[in-house]
Design a protein that fits this description.
The protein has 291 residues and is mostly helical. It has a domain of 197 residues: MetI-like (MetI-like fold). It contains twelve helices and no strands.
């Protein structure tokens, strides 16, 4: 059975081969470097800007590069924009990663269950998936946040709840193509249980496209959080990039940098995640490995 499985199963590439394929994509490598810098800022935020990021530290509306003390200037209340941007990377990445993890766990569970058991289970789960897809995502997020409260945990949960349907449908299609492979049938013939077959044999081979999709979910989660914070429903105790844009919109004519700086930060993160997702797709997709 082991020989049959090795011949029939689409095995994942080894780590060094995967990394080499990823590096061939220059855009993906550039996105990875930008994400590494942003992650370093998140980890070193307390060392770079100790103390509370939202405290008033100087005169109001100092423009960028006017003084080395405040390289990105200050806002209308005299808070250091650079400190809020650096500390804001933590909440931005935390929301994106946690929301993507939530969506991936729900999507993989729903999609795998629907494809494996089929019948009425598939019908019910897919109808539930379609129900979440027809509801406008931002409306559902705002509804959940309005009911539960403007806290970063609730925002992350709301974003995760609207992001899982695409992962569920992708996982279902992967399972349907893998569940009838020879190595899976051999495992059934040897008496392996459904749970063991799913965990050990099918999910490892179905995960590559899900990993790519999850990287896109992280980018979408960051955008959703920015919209929520822009509309004033974000966590008031967190220096979110979306919140900075929302607070600076009233001064966009006299001090456009208040919106431009966090907007550029959001653009760089989302663009980098999309580039990394493309690189992962090139490296993990067997149809594109030799492109």
């Amino acid at each position: 059975m082991r020989a049959l499985r090795d011949n029939a199963s689409p095995r994942l590439p080894q780590g060094h081969h995967l990394f080499a394929r990823f590096l061939r994509n220059r855009g993906a490598f550039g996105g990875f470097v930008v994400l590494a810098v942003i992650l370093a800022c998140a980890l070193l935020a307390d060392a770079l800007y100790p103390g509370a990021a939202l405290r008033i530290v100087g005169p109001a509306e100092i423009r960028p590069f006017e003084t080395w003390q405040f390289p990105l200037g200050t806002d209308s209340m005299g808070r250091d924009i650079a400190a809020m941007i650096v500390h804001g990377t933590r909440s931005t990445l935390a929301i994106g990663l946690c929301a993507a993890l939530t969506a991936t766990v729900i999507g993989v569970t729903v999609g795998a269950s629907a494809a494996w058991f089929g019948g009425w289970t598939d019908e019910i789960l897919m109808r539930c998936t379609e129900l979440f897809q027809i509801i406008p995502n931002i409306v559902l997020i705002l509804t959940v946040v309005s009911i539960l409260g403007p806290r970063i945990g609730y925002i992350t949960l709301a974003v995760g709840l609207v992001s899982w349907p695409s992962i569920a449908r992708l996982m279902r299609s992967e399972f349907l193509s893998l569940k009838e492979r020879e190595y899976v049938l051999a495992c059934r013939a040897l008496g392996m249980g459904n749970f063991r077959i799913i965990i050990e044999e099918i999910i490892p081979n179905a995960l590559p496209p899900v990993i790519v999709m999850s990287s896109m979910v992280v980018a979408g989660a960051i955008l959703y959080e920015s919209v929520v914070s822009f509309l004033g429903l974000g966590d008031p105790n967190v220096p979110s990039w979306g919140r900075l844009i929302g607070e600076g919109r009233s001064l966009i004519r006299t001090a456009p940098y208040l919106c431009a700086i966090p907007g550029i930060a959001i653009m760089l993160v989302v663009l980098s995640l999309n580039l990394v997702g493309d690189g992962l797709n090139d490296a993990l997709n067997p149809k594109l490995r030799d492109r």
